[in-house]
Design brief:
Shape: globular
Order of helices and strands: HHHHHHH
Radius of gyration: 16 Å
Structural class: mainly alpha
Length: 165
């Protein structure tokens, strides 16, 4: 939902931080505790994996390589955001996206490099945001990426419910 909110703000021409959205984000993160923050990081990596899986399949349908077409655009976009994405975080995010684009779990890929740092939190959010925006532009549907996630979660809930029977 945070990614969807941020996408809507960008497309509506609102820049900077919306105080109400920031207060909600601060409240949610303060209430999570240490395990909750790990869950948020895992969730962001899962979003990136889901987005890259969709992008890989879409690119394969037209005989294109997702890494060749998505990663350079992503890196160029992050380089234009020096206040949000420090240059040293860009190779980490590119590696994370390449791992996801080749079918590897971003969570497992990241574990080999140690814990996330505070400097990487915003670039991780930016990565998920840029991938969602890329999908929305490809589909020409501003809500496609959010709907894709919502539908995936609904399918998981339905599968869990069927397993209980």
């Amino acid at each position: 939902m945070m990614i969807d909110s941020q996408l809507k703000a960008v497309h509506d021409g609102r820049s900077g931080t919306d105080p109400e959205r920031q207060a909600l984000f601060d409240h949610v993160t303060a209430s999570l505790g240490p395990d909750g923050l790990d869950d948020v990081l895992d969730g962001a990596c899962t979003l990136i994996y889901l987005y890259m899986t969709w992008l890989r399949k879409a690119h394969e349908d037209v005989d294109k390589d997702v890494i060749e077409y998505v990663v350079p655009t992503l890196v160029a976009s992050m380089r234009r955001m020096p206040k949000s994405v420090r240059p040293e975080a860009i190779p980490i995010m590119a590696g994370l996206v390449i791992a996801a684009g080749t079918g590897l779990s971003p969570n497992l890929w990241r574990k080999q490099y140690g814990d996330w740092t505070e400097v990487e939190m915003t670039p991780l959010e930016v990565t998920a945001l840029l991938l969602a925006d890329h999908i929305n532009r490809i589909t020409e549907d501003r809500d496609f990426a959010t709907r894709m996630v919502t539908e995936a979660l609904s399918r998981m809930d339905a599968d869990d419910y069927e397993d209980e029977d």
